[in-house]
Amino acid sequence: MSGEVLSQSEIDALLSALSTGEMDADELKKEQVEKRVKVYDFRRALRFSKDQIRSLTRIHENFARLLTTFFSAQLRTYVNITVASADQIPYEEFIRSIPKMTILNVFDVEPLEGRILMEVNPNIAYAMMDRLLGGKGASHNKVDSLTEIETRIMSNMFEKAFENFREAWGSISDIDPQLSEFEINPQFLQMVSPNETVVVISLNTTIGEASGMINICIPHVVLEPIIPKLSVKYWMQSDKKQSLPIENSVLQSEIQKADVSITAEIGSSEISVQDFLMLDIGDVIELNQQIDQPLLIKVGDIPKFVGQPGKLNKKLAIQVFDTFKGGDDDGER
After folding, report:
1. 120: which of 80, 103, 198, 207 fits an S-S bond (Cβ 3.0–4.6 Å)?
2. In which compartments does the protein localize (predicted)?
3. 9-36 burial string, b = 16+ CB within 10 Å, else e?
4. Has residue 210 been placed in a domain?
5. 318 occurs within a structural domain
């Protein structure tokens, strides 16, 4: 009875039965203990928690939105892609569930180990190719006789589409998906052992009037290094870190500690390269500024003040007596 919500009338009937002796409380406890025993299939090991599956679903919902935008721009027709389900099953069961002839794209996802499989229903794949070649998006299934040109067009299209996978996974891991294999017969494809647990994310896909499924198959070996990042706790901590505000006072105090260079220019001059090469000891270069004019003081490379030279404690110094007027940076810093 755990997991069931009883109405008030059912609760009253249950209490009445217990008080009259029609039901025995010990028998109820025994029944509850017996229900705690669950059948476990060792050939179908569940290696991901519900929390982790929800995180994977959240990632691929973002991936589905990115694919919708990408294919809409490429095909210039109505496209709708949504997540239908996310399950963990043995690899052998996944292979049996897809068509005998279909479009299989295998991707390396460095730095993660293993490979990810994207299976595209032929109805969808041919509708996409027909649109790319200027058609209306008609769909027909002749995967067993793919020409070399059709193979090239499809592999290029899905390789570009899978680049959105990098963005969808950006919050979890920085991956670099690369198409490593293109196949049409699942029996010729052996990525992992038949009993290896894989996560299969199924995407409902509509291209114009054609519809079908796109399945993303991710083996456990790929996800194993990043499993801790698939928990709700990690997502909450990441959001919290991103939302922490920086106090203005702290920022200001750190900026005030920064070192900046200050230079005072006596003047400047322009000469030709030939005159520069002919310079010798004792030569005099005439500057563009009179001796009684104020000097320009720069903070970094930006003119900020004007002043006059002098001495302080037997050291050269310059006295600031006004801010620099003019220039694009005046009053901005």
Report:
1. 103
2. Bacterial flagellum basal body; Cell membrane
3. eeeeeeeeeeeeeeeeeeeeeeeeeeee
4. yes
5. yes
Instruction: Please report whether residue 248 resides in a domain.
Output: no
72 and 121 inside one domain: yes
Could you tell me if 168 and 212 lie in one domain?
yes
End-to-end CA distance of the chain: 71
Sequence-distant (≥ 6) Cβ neighbours of residue 24 within 8 angstroms:
none
Alpha helices in the chain (DSSP H): 8-20, 25-35, 50-75, 91-97, 122-132, 148-161, 164-168, 220-223, 232-243, 248-256, 273-277
What does each of the 333 residues of the chain score in pLDDT, given as a tens digit? 445 566 666 676 667 666 666 656 666 665 555 555 566 555 555 677 888 888 888 999 999 999 999 999 888 888 899 999 898 888 888 888 888 888 899 999 888 888 999 999 888 888 888 888 888 777 776 667 788 888 898 889 988 888 898 888 888 888 888 888 888 888 888 788 888 889 999 999 998 888 889 999 999 888 888 888 877 665 555 555 444 455 566 777 777 778 888 888 888 888 888 888 888 888 888 888 887 788 888 887 888 888 888 888 888 888 888 888 765 444 444
116: exposed, middle or buried (Cβ count in 10 Å: 0-12, 13-18, 19+)? buried
Domain that holds residue 311: 258-323
